[in-house]
Amino acid sequence: MHPRLSALAALRLTDPDQKVAATRATAALGATDSIATAPIRAAGDDLGVPGRPERPERVAATAVQKRSPFTPEGRAALIHSICHIEFNAINLALDAVWRYDGMPEAYYRDWLRVADEEAQHFTMLHAHLQDMGWRYGDFPGHDGLWNMCEKTKDDVLARMALVPRTLEARGLDATPLIQAKLKRVNTPDALRAVEILDVILRDEVGHVAIGNHWYRWLCERTGIDPEASYPALVARYDAPRHKPPFNLEARSRAGFSPEELRALTDSRPE
What range does the domain containing 20 cover? Predict the structure, then answer.
């Protein structure tokens, strides 16, 4: 099967374990087979996108109950929330592969690799959650990541600007703060979560870097300035604003320019 159509098939799967297996197989296929860049999109092909299980219950971000990581259930809820983000991240990477015709082969390979790593993240977190006595779906989750995918489905430039280099970049900022709380808890399950988050943070720097690369590539192809265009895209698609504290070191490694980092540190939350 064409790797991009294989990505669509994986994207439509609703069972998390089946989606992980299909995603990893698709990524392996894309790493060894050529990826034809001829258009593959067809009318009505977004039926069943994205495939998601009945649980977790999807609620507004403001309705997700805050729990203390200093209780076992609170830690499970925290791990579940990250697990949910990684499940959505599998879908958004597969969607980036399938949805956009007309991109270079390297673009599709990059996003297949991201999908594969997100599947690995989900697997690690879900195994840890099960070791704690819970499963994916046992707590509610919100749809923030996928909502932005929906908003940008007709514009690959906006997708690159507002999913990897905006929403996923927020994960670079948040992860060290979560790890610091878990280290204070200092139980075996909390310290294991810190180790898993080390792996995720390392990989997510690369994912944001891929988003930065293709955003700048698309801006150059279109003949627009990436840094001047970004605030307009944030406003047009009502993307979340950046809020401190910022992980400037990780953002720098992910390809944000010194000017962009200065703009972050000069900004104030609204």
Answer: 3-33+55-266
